[in-house]
Amino acid sequence: MLICMGTEDPFAPVERRAAFEEDMRAGGVDWRMNFYGRAEHSFTHPRAGDAGQLPGIKYHQPPTNGPGEPCSTCSTRCSPEPGRSTGPGRPRGPP
Questions:
Q1: Whole-Å CA distances, 9 to 15, 39, 95
Q2: Higher-confidence residue: 49 or 8?
Q3: Of 77, 74, 91, 75, nearest to 17 (Cα)?
Q4: C-alpha distances out from residue 35 to 4, 32, 43, 80, Å
Q5: 2 versus 72: which is more confidently predicted?
Q6: C-alpha to C-alpha distances, 58 to 8, 10, 51, nearest whole angstrom
Q7: What's the confidence (pLDDT) of residue 61?
Q8: What's the pTM?
Q9: Could you give the CA distance from residue 77 to residue 29 in angstroms, rounded to a whole number?
Q10: CA gyration radius for the chain?
């Protein structure tokens, strides 16, 4: 499982990230978390932060994550499945 996180995401503070890590370890899940500095929630979606959105939701111009690995890798791998929650709350594991 690949998780892409903005370091300024108000919906996933450090305490929640730590709880997520504990859950993944306890479940024996193979996972990886990539962090993107100064990025907020929904940072891979160009329309994030349009009028009417909640504070803390904002598009972040895609930087590169390393040689040849653009941030868009996260938007294709980490976009939620239809019907899955992406709002505040403890991150959910596989259905």
A1: 12, 7, 23
A2: 8
A3: 91
A4: 6, 10, 11, 17
A5: 2
A6: 10, 11, 11
A7: 78
A8: 0.60
A9: 17
A10: 13
Contact between 42 and 8 (Cβ < 8 Å): no
- The distance from CA 72 to its chain's CA centroid, rounded to whole angstroms, is 12
Closest-CA residue to 34 (of 4, 55, 6): 4
- Residues 72 and 45: their CA atoms lie apart, in Å, by 9
Q: How high is the pLDDT of residue 82?
A: 42
Strand partners, 32: 2
Distance CA 33, CA 51 (A): 29
- Residue type for position 73: T
Taken in order 21, 31, 94, 56, is the CA torsion positive or negative? positive
- Closest to 29 (Cα-Cα) out of 95, 93, 89: 93
What percent of the chain is predicted at pLDDT more than 70?
64
| C-beta of residue 35 within 8 angstroms of C-beta of residue 19 | no
